[in-house]
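Handout, section B. The chain below has 281 residues.
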Amino acid sequence: MDTLWLQIDVLWPAMLAGMLVVATHVPLGQEVLRRGIIFLDLAIAQIAGLGLIAASTVGLGDHAPVLEQLIAVCTAIIASLLLYQLRKHDPKEQEALIGVAFVLAATGSILLLASDPHGGERLRDLLVGQILWTNTTQLFWVALVYTCVLLVWFRLRGAQGTWLFYPLFAVTITLSTQLVGVYLVFASLIIPALAVRRLSRRRALVWAYASGFSAYLLGLMVSAWQDWPSGATIAWCLAFIGFACYGLSRLLPKPRQEEAVYKAAVVQEQASRVSDSGLST
């Protein structure tokens, strides 16, 4: 009984962290799929991690943790706005350039940690996360920022144009990477959104949230039961539940298209591309 209560005491902050991640990653992940920029989250997560490692390397981590966070967030926002400029390129070139940014950020982190005796452990934490070691103070500030992100995204995205996605995405990914790691950030963004693509917009949001929350709960329970790494277990649970949701969605009648708002944004962005290309010539 004491062991059970100890596990619950450890798992509930991790579950809360997972709920916070899913709350923001589901709508942003759906936008990633709509825009066709699948590897954007990996690139920004790695760039944010590079900012954290760089700040820690110069000694800011222990003495100025707030400054360290600001450096990571600013690095990710600047990188996201630079990647936003890639929309003028062909989609295949855009994905290739995002992949190059990911590789450079990943190898840059390796170079910065080359002389660190704990570099391998820090790099592993960046990739797979430490969701079981989250605390209530950290989650309070993350929840506050995520709430602001969701309010801005659902209320103002139409008024502010398509560029708003990139800085919001950068802030969210920076915090999420520190909670759950790069791999689980990618899985939380892509798998629930991909599993419900055949559903109508409102139904897809509900199903994606349900599958994400269920996967985190199941993954944490299984990892505690089998003593498996939590991040990897949650990623596999996201995949299994996502495949199940996708199979169920195929049995439902094909929904009407409810993308009028998004199509208007796409048309606006295409017009912006034409205008930008005309000015460049």
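Note. Confidence is low (pLDDT under 50) at residues 1-6, 276-281. Compare this with the example in section A.
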